[in-house]
Design goal:
The chain is 13% helix and 29% strand. It has 357 residues and is an alpha/beta fold.
Length: 357
């Protein structure tokens, strides 16, 4: 559990998030919790109408609720009304769960190579290895057992959680967060096939993570084969994401868990990938495109398009196709009957009520 701050009043919290208060401003609040588990000294989030039936049974002392839901909510307890409850959660959680303060200094077990340069107030944890010529910016924190390779650069205020590895030459911008197990700048998957087997093509390009990027646990971003692999500023990668060599991801993209992007694909600005989706190599995915979960992209995607399915296509026709899929056996039988052919079930597996498996 994260450490919690002292009690605040509901009025203080309403001011903190710029919300409209309805109820006692002096009500003491000690934390934020979900509707189902919140107690009388906690404020609970109500951001979606699907959770409204849970409100009467909740023990929460107050509600953080959207403007739309507040108007129809028949509940007399105090509330803080905001346009976007999820955005309001950010300062609330920071109030009740403040980040642990940085402890500037170098742990005695850390190993620093020749020519390492450290900015001011840098924290270097236990058993960290900083390779020759590595640079770490002001107030950056390098977690235990992490490796920052030869010639790497880590920007100011960045955080490398324990057991992060930066291969040689990787460049990390400012305010970047890398979670445990992230591997940045590993070799791309490049081989030349011949009768003698697969000869490894040296991967000599760079790997650049721009400012304000966050990369989840056990994710991998390969270095370029010749050019650079780039993750654009403000982009967020979930756990277990793989970005292959020479991929260029634009600013403010979101890649959720288990996404895979094959080599040399270009992803525009503000693109969103759902879980377990992916793209083959050498494609262009336009600005603002959205890729539904478990979709596989085999061709370029136009800007602003939402695609889904395997192979991924425009969501409109694909949604209609998915809706029809359960009815295919029935439609097939009707088609055969209209054609006047005997054996309308020909080509279909037996139904369970006919003894089939």
């Amino acid at each position: 559990m994260l450490a919690m701050a002292e009690t605040s009043t509901l009025g203080e919290l309403a001011s903190l998030v710029g919300g409209r208060l309805e109820g006692d401003p002096s009500l003491p609040i000690r934390g934020v919790a979900a509707l189902g588990i919140a107690g009388p000294d906690q404020i609970a989030l109500l951001a979606a109408s699907r959770y409204r039936p849970d409100v009467p049974g909740s023990r929460a002392g107050a509600l953080l609720v959207s403007t739309d839901l507040a108007a129809a909510l028949q509940d007399g307890r105090p509330r803080v009304i905001v346009a976007d409850p999820h955005a309001a959660l950010i300062p609330l959680l920071a109030r009740f769960h403040p980040a642990a303060p940085a402890r500037a200094g170098i742990h005695p077990t850390a190993v620093l190579g020749r020519g390492v340069r450290l900015g001011s107030d840098v924290e270097v944890g236990a058993y960290v290895v900083l390779g020759e010529g590595a640079e770490v910016g002001d107030r950056a924190r390098i977690g235990a057992n992490s490796v920052v390779g030869r010639g790497c650069r880590v920007g100011a205020d960045s955080l490398l959680h324990p057991q992060v590895t930066l291969y040689s030459g990787a460049v990390i911008g400012a305010r970047v967060i890398l979670h445990s197990g992230a591997r940045i700048g590993s070799d791309g998957f490049g081989y030349a096939a011949s009768s003698a087997g697969h000869a490894k093509i040296p991967q000599v390009g760079g790997c650049i993570i721009e400012d304000d990027v966050e990369i989840g646990a056990n994710s991998c971003v390969d270095r370029g084969s010749i050019g650079d692999t780039v993750i654009g500023r403000g982009s967020k990668l979930d756990n277990l994401v793989h970005v292959a060599h020479n991929v260029r991801i634009g600013p403010h993209c979101v890649l959720t868990a288990l996404v895979g992007i094959a080599g040399s694909t270009t992803v525009g600005t503000g693109v969103a990938f759902g879980g377990q989706s992916g793209a083959i190599g050498h494609l262009t995915i336009g600005d603002g495109a959205k890729v539904a979960a478990k979709s596989a992209i085999f061709q370029d995607v136009a800007p602003g398009t939402t695609v889904m399915g395997i192979p991924a296509s425009d969501q409109g026709p694909m949604r209609r196709a998915f809706a029809l899929f359960p009815r295919l056996p029935e439609l097939f039988r009707r088609l055969r009957a209209l054609e006047g052919r005997p054996g309308a079930r020909e080509g279909l597996p037996p139904d369970e009520d006919e003894g089939g498996a």
